[in-house]
Amino acid sequence: MLQTARAVLEKDFRIELRTRDAISAALVFSILVLVVFNFALDVNTPEMRRLAAGFFWVAFAFAGTLALDRSFALEKESGAGRALALAPVDAGGIYLGKCAANAAFLFITQLVALPLFVIFFDVSIQRAGALAASFALGSIAFAAVGTLFSAVAANTRMRGLLLPILFLPLSVPALIASVETTSFALGNAEGPSFWFTLLVVYDVVFLTASVLVFEYVLEES
Amino acid sequence: MSAHALECERITKRYGRIAALNSVDVSVDPGECVAIFGRNGAGKTTLLHVAGSLIRNFDGEVRVFGQSRGDNGSDARRTTGLVLHETCLYDDLTAAENLRFFARLYQVSDAERRAGDVLARFELADRAQSVVRTLSRGMKQRLAIARAMVHRPRLLLMDEPFTGLDEPSSQTLVTVLREFVRDGGAVVLSTHDVERAFDVATRAIVLERGSLTLDRSLADVDAAAFRHAYWHVLFTGTARA
Known about the structure:
heterodimer; A: 221 residues; mainly alpha; 9 helices; 0% strand; globular; B: 241 residues; alpha/beta; four-stranded antiparallel beta sheet; 10 strands; 35% helix; 26% strand
């Protein structure tokens, strides 16, 4: 399973390095949303700084949908996904490879958008380790659910519409936990252990469930 | 254990009220190349998709080298190579990267070398580092066939493999398929080109509205006689006695 996951991960990275489709779409969208927030709201108040993590994750949730939508679209082009589905490999391995690639793309998008976020919202990073953990666990959570539903949505004619409808409601617990852990990293919240635990549990549950059901999703592709 | 490379028993596939395949029985032995003929919509592609596990919701039984497709066994998948209407390639990877990726998925031990060998066999070695998106239609078709063969399958299912190929490339494919069959492989290909099929096929079947109307060895038939019989099926819907 891990060999398959590695092959798929390397393939997706190679394609992304060549096209930059997923990261550039997510990055442009998240920067646009942050710019709009910056001009629409008076962000230079203590109250707004406390809410800054929420703005960041709202921007990222919608931007991430664009990147995830692209994930299985490239499998549909020229029917490559059919050849992938017919290969004598564990479907869970294919899922893990796609999920790892998506999580990495989302994490990179966050890291690139972070300096703008810090400047626009005038926040300071109090706990860098916690921020990295928050971004990493949040990216894995989004990728775990998003990869599964990206595969489901890719088989329908309403791909672009269906993905956010399926994906965003299920990702709300991860979104809330990510906002709280990022707030903690920015020094705006206390007692993060519950939220970090929630993120870890969410990641484990959705990764495990998705690995188990992915075979049936691929069958329909 | 069956000696057949492919066995399709009483295959029926319906799309609503329309039977794309109606109780079709076909078996193919190792060392055989079977050409499927038929008009558009006769069921050629559906039969290949059923045999290749692309369609799983059908009535009947498909076995590959004795293993039921219904078992979803990886052995059956490992022994089969598929060429479809779509190229099944990643447009943003190079030719070599595509082949190496699929070779890795099929756990080909010498993936790098095998990819190079197959590219050379289909005269694509000089375009190995070209991104697929930049290749011509004929080159993509050759690469699609190379992809289907990179894991050394024993059964090849090919949907109109000569489409988009120029004359030299078609001749190369004929040579490759002859060698494949001579080495004990089995090929099932759909085509409309009787002459080209006669270059490589050992048997021909004709589908008409989802039913098998003709199944004939080509060993003792010349192309002109077969074409005559085929056209009779096409225009009357029945085989000559």
